[in-house]
Amino acid sequence: MLPAHWLIETLTEVDSTNSELMRRARRGDTASTLLIAEQQTAGRGRLGRQWQSQRGQALMFSLGLELNPLQWSGLSLAVGLSLVNSLDPHQQHGLGLKWPNDLWLGPVQQARKLGGILIETALLDGAKSARYVVIGVGINLHAPPAASLSMPAAAWCDVQPQATVANTLQTLLLPLVDALDRFAQTGFAPLRTAFARRDLLAGQTLRLSNGVEGVGAGVDAQGVLQIDTAQGRVGVSSDEVSVRLGALA
Questions:
Q1: 3-state class of 208 per DSSP?
Q2: How much is the pTM?
């Protein structure tokens, strides 16, 4: 169970759990909240991509809480690492992370997207460094129609046939809240080695949206993607480019 001060709410339908919590934050409601959607009509992913699913087909939730970490860089990686460690603790299903915020089922050249993370923040009145952070998570229990996707999707029920929205959330939730507490205290650096074990881009030929190509070389202590190019190693932040693997555009 979450600590007593958390609000837990399930909505039958909402445009987006992230959007709803951000609206509340802008109105001054910054309570620690777990918001679950049975259905989203305008779910969002990174760079404005749509993430929509019908009732029972996916786990869709957002956590909203005040956070004041040592540094913000690497938060999406810490969240992703917590999720894959909870779902696939012994790495027997090939569940890994595509920097900066996607969960993929491998092997990498045939990888399919299982889920994604969207993190948004709102400044708090009178706070210099603390923010209200909204962490949205979407995980396919059943694969959505292929026609609506830019790359093949994975379904967790293909791996764990007994998976439901309820038991998948129960598996993920408390470890994720604990991971956020640890991240606030120590940042991403202590997670770098663990992330490397789940990093699907390391050693792969990558192409960035700005045309740069190179080989994935892991992440640095702040979670910045490193790519070895013909001109040398470069760091890539999530705000600059999107990463594409080989032909998986």
A1: strand
A2: 0.91
**Has residue 39 been placed in a domain?**
yes
In a domain, 16, yes or no: yes
Residue 230 to residue 225: CA distance in whole angstroms: 16
Number of domains observed in the structure of the chain: 1
* H or E element that contains 32: none
Q: Peptide bond preceding 3: is omega within 30 degrees of 0, i.e. cis? A: no
Bigger pLDDT: 20 vs 55: 20
Give residue 143's domain range: 7-200
d(CA 36, CA 13): 9
Question: Is position 207 within any domain?
Answer: no
Question: Biggest alpha carbon distance in the chain?
Answer: 54
Question: DSSP string covering 118-141, please?
Answer: EEEEEEPTT-SS-EEEEEEEEEES
Residue 187 to residue 197: CA distance in whole angstroms = 18
Question: Judging by DSSP bridges, how do beta strands 102-105 and 112-123 pair with one another?
Answer: antiparallel
What value does the mean pLDDT take over residues 80-106? 94
- Say which CATH number the domain at 168 has: 3.30.930.10
Adjacent-strand bridge partners of 40 = 14, 53
How would you label 204-234 residue by residue, b for 16+ Cβ within 10 Å and e otherwise? bebbbeeeeebebbbbbebbbbbbeeeeeee
237 within some domain: no
